[in-house]
Automatic annotation (TrEMBL):
The gene is UBA4. It is found in: Cytoplasm, Cytosol. One of its GO terms (molecular function) is adenylyltransferase activity. Residues 10-41 form a coiled coil. PANTHER family: ADENYLYLTRANSFERASE AND SULFURTRANSFERASE MOCS3 (PTHR10953:SF102), UBIQUITIN-ACTIVATING ENZYME E1 (PTHR10953). This is Needs CLA4 to survive protein 3. Residues 340-431 form the Rhodanese domain. Its cofactor is Zn(2+).
Amino acid sequence: MVDTISMVDTVSYTEQIKALKRENEQLKQQLNARVAKDETQVDAFFTLEEYLRYGRQMTVRELGISGQRKLKTARVLVIGAGGLGCPALLYLAGAGVGKLGIVDNDVVDTSNLHRQVLHSTERVGQLKCESAKTYLQKLNPFVEIETYPVRLLNSNSFAIFRNYEVILDCTDTPITRYLISDTATLCGLPVVSGSGLRTEGQLSILNFNNTGPCYRCFYPRPPPPNAVTSCSDGGVLGPAIGLVGVMMALETLKLVSGAYTQDNFKPFLTVYAGYPTQSLRTFNMRGRKADCKACSLQASITEKMITSGEINYTEFCGRVNYNVLQPEERVSVEELAEALKSEVTLLDVRAPEQFEICSLPKATHISLDALEKMSVEELVQLKEPIYVVCRFGNDSQLATRLLKERAGLKRVWDVKGGVSRWADVVDLKFPKY
């Protein structure tokens, strides 16, 4: 009898839980329906909750209720949901920008989490644009968010850009920066452009009101490919790039709310440095170049040239050719592991900061930069056979070619995949970074 009563109690309790869940779901549906019917709508712009949500910033003289209304109807596109895009999106959504677009075809990786603050450990492997949308919708359900899980290309940039009124360039390659600037200029859209690396960053506003300079005005020619360092190679400190992203958000709010006018706007470049003491410096920049190919009266770049692929941004910016060796001049990490059982020279050409993180047993460290500055007399002191390793197997190819051509060394091999491949195949406990 006792067992029967206990069973009845358990069933009853389970039914109560199910009933509570159904009731909770009904309440949620009623709330959503209420919002959909605008039962709390005060005026043409805001609900009661929105007045409460944005009240602290609407009382700021520089923004006011008129500026908040402009934010409500604004359409802002953010390209890149990484170290710059995450803090920018966070504050734009919090401020109440009506529609946010996010372009990013990358997925969340554990190495992103120290700086890309919209993502989480649980969302590793998800598309960054969708991960960001999940966070932002919880932060502010009044903001419409559209995602574009694609790589920005000549073929799709115009179709995406024309749905927005301000573009945020949160990318990290010259190839994409030129494409963004050219497309935005031809669409008549301003670009809030930011960048960051290590402990420094910078930002500016391009093509303001179709009269300000574009990216090509600042940089008519791209930097040499070997002078461009990515975050994965050069490293980045989260708060430093985050501050630049926050400043980009503020510049966007100023653009959208009308704080900048034709009379008071002057082209600028703001530079942030995190070390040794934090500093911000803003430089006045020149206006449009009279002979700019994208934005001057003599502009030669057209939409058709971009969409057809006639303008090849990869070719224009160039790229470092790491494929400088023949197959027989490269070995696998398994072959390296076997070679290390005998007397060989293992030369690690990564940057000092990377070598300090982890290194293979018996490795000799000479960075590629230092290697290139060494004399022939110094290079020939390296004892053959030599196996050259770096992080991914790129710089080590250049170092191997240098040792063979400049120093005349014969028994030199590059290690394919570098220490990253070693961690995947030979030693699963070797740190990856």
